[in-house]
């Protein structure tokens, strides 16, 4: 039992409470382990997998894991860690985002052993009386005691009433699903603890144990991984982008990625040269989500392009449909290699743009008469071809 507990405990931030959790582990039944994600964006990213990997640990130990898709709560949006109210997304956006969620999560979880739930199936029929009954179990002062709400209130930033509803609705999910354990990031602690309270209010004598996981910083090494901050590594990223993004993180952050995204012995990792350890990590992550052969291929490509300063194979083509005069900065932007023309100009000024391996010294007019390889930075390549 101690071995089981230590396996679950690895990488966690907090278990509330340890005594209750150990007691649940001795129950002669499968525990119901809940983790919910709102489909507010189309891609799951490595930040999500920190918790999903912990779900997989429970699944491997024989427990029932529940992957909850918040198709109702996505209409509000989780206020955790937010400094302002989230914009409301449409039902069409929610349904489009849902389409790929199960495919992505089953890259980690066993499909046959995973319970998929959608909270619209009970929250959508809760009704006014059910909602009144739920909101009566909490107070405004309790909500304002939450760090992010308190900060926004003091700074006179708006807090929508629906944002107060969000943690209550998440808590009600735990009542319906009869969750024994709920997992989430450290920014979810308020919501998860409220789930314990609401379960008690609805007559559940042994409420869920809360397990929080650290937030994974994005590739900028500063803020948590999020599509909003454009610092994420999506599970649906191309192998090339996934490998390159991992290679761009700092050595310090790399060890955190190892701890939260793999089961590798950190002592062995630290015995390696940091660059080699990072290459191994990138290969492991690509292999996990794209297959072993692809992982090996990307490792070879990286060595070819960066160690030997070569050019990658199978470079994506960008077709020029007309011969309108265009500057390098405009081509970089239109081909999707950079997010803005300002970013393109910065690349050029810093000597990070090449045409056929020759450094571009200034923002010149491009000659499209012959195909050429356009490079931005160390890992962005496009083959420019006249249609």
Instruction: Give the helices and strands as they follow along the chain.
Output: HEHEHEHHEHHHHHEHEHHHHHEHHEEEE
Look at the structure and give the CATH class of the largest domain. Answer: Alpha Beta
CATH architecture assignment of the largest domain: 3-Layer(aba) Sandwich
Helix content: 40-55%
Describe what this molecule looks like in 3D:
This protein has helices at 2-9, 18-25, 46-60, 91-98, 101-105, 120-123, 127-135, 140-144, 147-154, 161-177, 189-201, 239-247, 251-261, 266-271, 274-290, 292-307, 328-334, 341-349; strands spanning 14-16, 32-37, 64-69, 114-118, 181-185, 209-213, 317-320, 353-355, 358-359, 372-376, 380-386. 45% of the residues lie in helices and 13% in strands. 34% of the residues are buried. The radius of gyration is 24 Å and the shape is globular. A six-stranded mixed β-sheet has the order 1-6-5-2-3-4, with helices on both faces. The longest helix has 17 residues, at 161-177. With 387 residues, the chain is an alpha/beta fold.
In summary, what is this structure?
With 387 residues, this protein is α/β, with parallel strands linked by helices. Helix content is 45%, strand content 13%.
Helix and strand layout, with pairings?
Layout: H1 2-9, E1 14-16, H2 18-25, E2 32-37, H3 46-60, E3 64-69, H4 91-98, H5 101-105, E4 114-118, H6 120-123, H7 127-135, H8 140-144, H9 147-154, H10 161-177, E5 181-185, H11 189-201, E6 209-213, H12 239-247, H13 251-261, H14 266-271, H15 274-290, H16 292-307, E7 317-320, H17 328-334, H18 341-349, E8 353-355, E9 358-359, E10 372-376, E11 380-386
Parallel strand pairs: 2-3, 2-5, 3-4, 5-6, 7-11
Antiparallel strand pairs: 1-6, 8-9, 8-10, 10-11
Helix pairs in contact: 10-11, 12-15, 12-16, 13-15, 15-16, 17-18
